[in-house]
Design brief:
With 639 residues, this protein is mainly alpha-helical. It folds into two domains: 2-135, no CATH class; 158-613, no CATH class. The protein is 59% helix and 6% strand. The chain has 27 helices and seven strands. The longest helix is centred in the last third of the chain and has 38 residues, at 576-613. The radius of gyration is 29 Å and the shape is globular. The N and C termini lie far apart (91 Å).
């Protein structure tokens, strides 16, 4: 056994990869991030500040450079230290190199070379593409698109204010279509809708789905919590904190938490199937409901997404400045202007290397899977054939991730390495080919469809769950088991372990499937009120208004992280406390911004969709015949 351990250690030493450095060795590395004073730099006309990504090179044998290369080679838990990130006050720090340089990039490169060669015996390569420069007298750069967006936002705000005033003075007493259209934009009524909680009616099966508000809100909060530490990967004075935290067992829940997004697909599939099944009780489902259903889903997602997208592409870049402002905020604005139609058509999850709101890949996948669900339930009316179609989708959803892993040699889960987090995932092959595609997330959408069919059938059969109370202890074990599944991916981060391709393929299939079935079991138990603990937590009234705000909060939270990080003029010192404070700040800001977005945009347009596409039919009440006292005449009263 000792001989085996010695062989493994020798193999690691000769493999050209360094997994750990002690504190003294790590201190020898060039600083990964460094910022000159930003605000003291831009004080006079002509002053220039540049943020650059400089690649380290050497023209001679350098033992330190070899260490840097071998340490950076293990990119699962290490930054790429062969690229250093510098905020340089060109007109002060590099003044001596401006006159002899052929360009700004050449001057910055020569300036960095002089410093790094003196301290570490290294040089750099700087290109124009890796530089983001700001000048003191730089124009704000307002254009017609900026003005058009601000006019559009102003028009929406004024429309809400005008309709609210009309509602307040009582000018919409009649129930004409025009009055109802105006009332969709009443702030008072939308505020009441936000605060309203669903009534618990004995015959209302939709009221049994209150637990979904808890699932949706908790999942959104966890997504924001997982994204909030991204600033550490973008700008920090102690990058070793992030590299070392991978060895903390508790941190594995952050790095493997990408799995929780599957809950959204479960909920989406369940609600689509369940609502169609309820609708089928009143009228037959036909093919013509497919385009109407797809349009409804698009109109549900598009208004708020369009407003946030328009703001990110225009006015967000005017909100501030900082060393990383152009690399984080301006870059996203430029790419949103280029790729905005992919986002609004909800095919952005099949567009790679786009920095335009990359977290909204989920919306594209959800839209595509919703269309698939509509195809199954609108075109297939036979219950037996529907079950076969859902089962086929289930099987395809299980196999598809394994095919991608094997063919493209991918990781079975999205490994949130420091460099992947620094680029917000957009350049990672696993993110682009396995994580964000619609077809690779099919399995849990199919689980959601199947769960809805099961719940509907059991409700039709008057299912009595009290007969199974003896299994409550097993039910309580489902949530800890789901937490264990999230942490199970930590073995992929273990130093020196390269998981075989076959094992990765099996894990990619099994993980999403088992996690989805576990959450579906918790969900179904809460719907039937199997016990009081999980059900009580998930049906808490406070989740309902927060659940309504969750979509808008999800849309804006990454933009908040970009804005705050881009405006930081100094490097942040990373710690657990700092991560916690950043998370709470991003969470609060996300929901504070989501509230007016919901009342002014999301709620009004949702009501418009209901009014225009699903108008309530007038009820035809029978005429009441009243026999008048003392007369033979009959008076017909129409109610």
């Amino acid at each position: 056994m000792k001989a085996l351990v010695i062989c493994v250690l020798l193999a690691q030493q000769t493999s050209g990869v360094i997994y750990r450095l002690n504190a003294s060795e790590y201190a020898r590395l060039p600083e990964l991030f460094f910022l000159d004073n930003y605000h003291n730099c831009l004080l006079a006309p002509g002053d220039t500040y540049c943020y650059v990504d400089a690649r380290l090179v050497t023209n001679e044998t350098n033992q330190l450079f070899t260490v840097i290369q071998e340490y950076s080679a293990y990119n699962k838990t290490h930054f790429d230290h062969t690229i250093v990130h510098r905020g340089v006050c060109v007109t002060q720090t590099c003044r001596d190199y401006l006159d002899n340089a052929t360009g700004l990039a050449h001057a910055v490169e020569a300036c960095l070379n002089a410093t790094l060669y003196k301290s570490h015996g290294l040089q750099t390569k700087v290109s124009e593409d890796s530089m983001y420069c700001s000048k003191f007298d730089e124009p704000a750069g307002y254009d017609m698109v900026d003005y058009a967006v601000v006019l559009l936002i102003l028009a929406v705000v004024l429309l809400n204010m005008a309709c609210s005033l009309i509602d307040y003075v009582g000018c919409t007493g009649n129930k004409s279509i025009g009055s109802r259209l105006l009332l969709c934009f009443s702030i008072k009524r939308n505020w009441d809708r936000l605060r309203k909680t669903a009534a618990d009616g004995p015959d209302s099966r939709l009221a049994r789905l209150k637990c979904f508000n808890g699932f949706k809100t908790i999942t959104t909060v966890l997504v924001i919590m997982a994204h909030s530490p991204m600033n550490i990967a973008m700008s920090t004075s102690n990058p070793e904190f992030l590299e070392n935290i991978y060895h903390n067992p508790i941190a594995t829940y952050f790095f493997n938490g990408t799995l929780i997004v599957q809950i959204f697909f479960l909920i989406s599939g369940f609600l689509l199937a369940y609502n169609i099944l309820l609708m089928e009780e009143k009228r037959p489902i036909s093919w013509d409901m497919l385009p109407k259903g797809a349009l409804t889903r698009w109109l549900r997602l598009a208004p708020v997404n369009a407003v946030v997208l328009a703001f990110v592409a225009t006015w967000q870049r005017h909100l501030g400045s900082g060393p990383l402002w152009k690399s984080l905020v301006h870059k996203e604005a430029a790419q949103c202007r280029r790729d905005w139609f992919y986002n609004l058509l909800y095919v952005n999850n099949y567009v790679d290397n786009s920095d335009c709101m990359p977290h909204t890949w989920y919306l594209g996948a959800d839209m595509q899977l919703s269309v698939f669900g509509l195809v199954v339930f609108c075109l297939v009316t036979s219950p037996r054939v529907r079950k076969m179609a859902v089962a086929a989708a289930f099987v395809v959803g299980i196999i598809t991730p394994a095919v991608h892993v094997v063919v493209q040699n991918l990781s079975p889960i999205l490994l949130v390495s420091p460099e992947v987090a620094r680029t917000i995932f957009v350049t990672d092959p696993t993110f682009n080919n396995l994580y964000k595609r619609g077809h690779t997330n099919l399995v849990n959408y199919a689980v959601g469809l199947a769960s809805a069919m099961l719940v509907y059938h059991l409700q039709q059969q008057k299912f009595d769950i009290t007969k199974y109370k003896k299994y409550v202890p097993l039910y309580y074990g489902l949530v800890p088991f789901a937490v264990f599944l999230i942490s199970s991916g930590s073995f992929l981060y273990i130093d020196g372990i390269e998981v075989p391709l076959a094992a990765r393929a099996v894990y990619a299939c099994a993980l999403r499937l088992v996690y989805g079935l576990t959450i579906a079991a918790v969900m179904n138990g809460a719907i039937f009120k199997f016990e009081n603990l999980y059900c009580g937590v998930l049906e808490w009234r406070g989740w309902e208004p927060l659940g309504r705000l969750s979509y808008a909060a999800f849309l804006v939270h990454v933009s908040i992280i970009r804005t705050v990080t881009g405006a930081y003029a100094v490097l942040t010192y990373s710690s657990v406390n700092q991560i916690a404070m950043r998370f709470l700040g991003v969470l609060c800001l996300s929901y504070m911004i989501a509230a007016p977005l919901w009342m002014l945009v999301e709620a009004p347009f949702c009501e418009l969709v209901k009014l225009c596409l699903y108008p309530k039919k007038k009820e035809h009440k029978p005429e009441l015949t009243i026999q008048c006292e003392g007369k033979n005449d009959k008076i017909c009263i129409k109610l």
